[in-house]
Design a protein that fits this description.
Layout: H1 8-16, H2 20-33, H3 40-52, H4 56-59, H5 62-69, H6 73-77, H7 90-98, H8 117-129, H9 133-146, H10 152-164, H11 168-173, H12 180-193, H13 200-214, H14 223-240, H15 244-252, H16 256-263, H17 271-285, H18 291-295
Helix pairs in contact: 2-3, 2-8, 3-9, 8-9, 9-12, 12-14, 13-14, 14-17, 16-17
Keywords: Cell adhesion, Cell junction, Repeat
GO cellular component, one term: plasma membrane
Family: Belongs to the beta-catenin family.
Length: 296
């Protein structure tokens, strides 16, 4: 677990180690089958896989790049920060939707397992069944890593999470936990998922009211809560930018007073959340058909 966070070269060596990833996945599958999702070894295994999935899209070996990533190389080279706080243009989003999704292998081996639907479902199962905060955070974080970036792999993983594996209810539940790091990672994952235009209506229907409910009444006083608030605002921005219906959903969930209050914070220390709320307000005002409702 410590070695898996040693940087790009360490990740590369561990991904190439024959049988290592397969063994980790095998162990976690056994723990879930035995109804033991809370043991320490499972936590360690998930944390290793979380670390090995970091920047996976841009660190893939050339053999994988040619098969699932080559068509995205030009766009991805212009986006060197594929993390949860990166920004992408609408043009990139539209191109992403046009890219054919990679075909899954029925029996993945080694690094192929890291983005396979089998492991995605394992993460979602652990999020739902484990009560261990580090296991929940690592599972959410692995999915966050896999859905970062602009290539066909992140989009395929996002579609699997939302539409094929019905993962939104489990992720939604993590918005209401008391552990701040788990909540922050869940929101960051939802932010990544919400970038995919074809999934936005599903996400809005499932989690938009919950996102509004966990928004604070004003800018929170600690860094992690402030980052979480900013990420919620950017997720809501993604969900409402192109949808008057979703903007109305935010309005009916009584989100507007909260967003206004956050945007009006004067402290420079927590300007990230205020800036995000202001961006969201500006976008909401673009729906001219809602102006009278906003004024009320």
């Amino acid at each position: 677990r410590n070695m898996s966070s040693a940087g790009p070269e360490g990740r590369k060596k561990m991904r190439e180690c024959e049988g290592l990833i397969d063994s980790l996945v095998y162990y976690i599958q056994g723990a879930i089958a035995d109804h033991e999702p809370n043991d320490k070894a499972t936590e360690n295994c998930v944390c290793i896989l979380h670390n090995l999935s970091y920047q996976l899209e841009i660190e893939l070996p050339e053999s994988y790049a040619q098969s699932i990533y080559m068509r995205r190389r030009n766009i991805s080279n212009n986006d060197k920060t594929p993390g949860c706080f990166g920004t992408r243009s609408r043009k990139v989003k539209e191109k992403q939707q046009d890219t054919p999704l990679p075909e899954e292998k029925s029996n993945p081996k080694g690094v192929e397992s890291l983005w396979h639907s089998t492991l995605i479902r394992i993460y979602l199962s652990l999020i739902a069944k484990s009560t261990r905060n580090y296991t929940q955070e690592a599972s959410l974080g692995a999915l966050q890593n896999l859905t970062a970036g602009t290539g066909p792999m992140p989009f395929a993983v996002a579609r699997t999470v939302v539409q094929k594996a019905n993962g939104l209810p489990s992720i939604r539940a993590m918005l209401h936990v008391s552990h701040p790091a788990v909540k922050k990672t869940a929101v960051s994952l939802l932010r990544n998922l919400s970038r995919n235009t074809s999934l936005q209506n599903d996400i809005a229907r499932e989690v938009l009211p919950d996102l509004v409910s966990v928004l604070p009444e004003c800018v929170p006083g600690c860094d992690i809560a402030c980052e979480t608030t900013a990420s919620i605002c950017y997720t809501l921005f993604n969900l409402t930018q192109n949808s008057s219906h979703n903007a109305r959903l935010l309005l009916s969930a009584h989100g507007l007073p909260k967003v206004i209050a956050i945007s009006m914070n004067d402290s420079n220390m927590f300007s990230k959340a205020s800036r995000a709320a202001s961006v969201l307000l500006y976008s909401l005002w673009s729906h001219t058909d809602l102006h009278s409702a906003y004024k009320k």
